[in-house]
């Protein structure tokens, strides 16, 4: 194979490796976004349940003539309020954890590219 073709192949391999590194970092960033969205979906699910408990308890107290339904309603309303408070607490804690891990994440594609260049310049490729 002519030297020019080998050189072109090496350049293409180098570009491909660099693009693979960039792609892996894009996947990492997208994974972080998916984690944030999952945390938000979980909060919404908790809130939906809390509102249902509050609404059911309120309806049981206001619309029922029976004492046991009023007692159930009086139990459901604080349970819904506690669930809403817990869900907000849980959401904030998870969001802080996600942000800490996001801050600790370091982009490495430029480091990989520099390392690859140094490695390829230190020896002659036999491919």
UniProtKB/TrEMBL annotation:
Localisation: Cell membrane
Residue ranges occupied by any DUF202 domain in the UniProt entry: 34-96
Membrane topology summary: Multi-pass membrane protein
Keywords: Cell membrane, Membrane, Transmembrane, Transmembrane helix
Alphabetical list of Pfam families matching this protein: DUF202
Spans through the membrane: 43-61, 67-92
UniProt-annotated stretches for the region Disordered: 108-127
Main location: membrane
Database matches in InterPro entries: DUF202, IM_YidH-like
Identification of the protein by name: DUF202 domain-containing protein
Organism: Pontibacter aydingkolensis
């Amino acid at each position: 194979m002519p030297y020019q073709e080998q050189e072109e192949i090496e350049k293409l391999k180098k570009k491909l490796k660099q693009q693979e590194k960039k792609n892996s970092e894009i996947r990492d960033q997208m994974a972080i976004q998916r984690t944030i969205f999952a945390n938000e979906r979980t909060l919404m699910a908790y809130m939906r349940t809390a509102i249902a408990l509050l609404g059911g308890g309120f309806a049981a107290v206001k619309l029922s003539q029976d004492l046991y339904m009023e007692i159930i309603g009086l139990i459901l309303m604080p349970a819904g309020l506690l669930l809403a408070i817990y869900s907000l607490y849980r959401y904030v804690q998870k969001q802080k954890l996600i942000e800490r891990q996001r801050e600790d994440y370091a982009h490495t594609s430029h480091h990989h590219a520099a390392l690859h260049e140094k490695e390829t310049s230190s020896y002659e490729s036999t491919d």
